[in-house]
Amino acid sequence: EADIYQTPRYLVIGTGKKITLECSQTMGHDKMYWYQQDPGMELHLIHYSYGVNSTEKGDLSSESTVSRIRTEHFPLTLESARPSHTSQYLCASSEYSGTEQFFGPGTRLTVL
Amino acid sequence: KQEVTQIPAALSVPEGENLVLNCSFTDSAIYNLQWFRQDPGKGLTSLLLIQSSQREQTSGRLNASLDKSSGRSTLYIAASQPGDSATYLCAVIPMDNQGGKLIFGQGTELSVKP
């Protein structure tokens, strides 16, 4: 089993709150990714990183932001949560682009 | 634009049956293809990774094949068990995608009845 962790696992929060979803991996992978999955829908990439101080937006537009200050840590932040942000957020990492991606357990976010 | 389709969307089989899940992709220029398993409300577990130069990969009761020219992959599960019940996802990395971003299908929800 891959060593990639996400906290919190579940979060219910009111509109307008600032939230940070944490993702950490202990495999020393340079590549990290954030995917969003709405219920019954496919996963879509929202952010990715090649390494420290590198972040890029994915295919699905997102109001969230990410940072990569340390190799093992790739947090995602929503400055002002809205009900449309309700979804499952999955973090992943890989050693190189194109190699096997390992996923964390996900954070299920509900914004009321 | 690469699109990934999985058929069927849902499948119910009795325990012990062998079964095949299908995945198709519109652009044959892929770097690799990965099969995942997702349990309800959980993250993804990587099952098999097939590089573009490979035809198949095996792990235990699972066998995945890849036919790039026809844009198809299959996941064969032998002697299915109730514990195999989950959603199975396939995903590709396009050849021109330098970021290594996976493009997913919508998944096949498998139910194995005891």
Overall description:
The complex is a heterodimer of chains A (112) and B (114). Chain A has no helices and eleven strands. Chain A has strands spanning 4-7, 10-13, 19-25, 31-37, 44-51, 54-57, 65-66, 76-78, 87-94, 102-103, 107-111. In chain A, the strands form two sheets. In chain A, strands 2, 4, 5, 6, 9, 10 and 11 form a seven-stranded mixed β-sheet that branches. Chain A has a four-stranded antiparallel β-sheet with strand order 1-3-8-7, with no helix packed on it. In chain A, a hairpin with a 6-residue loop joins β4 (31-37) and β5. The radius of gyration of chain A is 13 Å and the shape is globular. The model of chain A has no long low-confidence stretch (mean pLDDT 92). Chain B has no helices and eleven strands. Chain B has strands spanning 4-7, 10-14, 19-25, 30-38, 44-51, 56-59, 62-67, 72-77, 86-94, 103-104, 108-113. Chain B is globular. The mean pLDDT of chain B is 93. The interface between A and B is medium-sized, with 32 and 25 residues.
Helices and strands in order, then pairings?
The complex is a heterodimer of chains A (112) and B (114).
Chain A: E1 4-7, E2 10-13, E3 19-25, E4 31-37, E5 44-51, E6 54-57, E7 65-66, E8 76-78, E9 87-94, E10 102-103, E11 107-111
Parallel strand pairs in A: 2-11
Antiparallel strand pairs in A: 1-3, 3-8, 4-5, 4-9, 5-6, 7-8, 9-10, 9-11
Chain B: E1 4-7, E2 10-14, E3 19-25, E4 30-38, E5 44-51, E6 56-59, E7 62-67, E8 72-77, E9 86-94, E10 103-104, E11 108-113
Parallel strand pairs in B: 2-11
Antiparallel strand pairs in B: 1-3, 3-8, 4-5, 4-9, 6-7, 7-8, 9-10, 9-11
In short:
The complex is a heterodimer of chains A (112) and B (114). By secondary structure, chain A is mainly beta. In chain A, 0% of the residues lie in helices and 48% in strands.
Descriptive terms for the model:
heterodimer, A: 112 residues, mainly beta, 4-stranded antiparallel sheet, 48% strand, B: mainly beta, 6-stranded mixed sheet
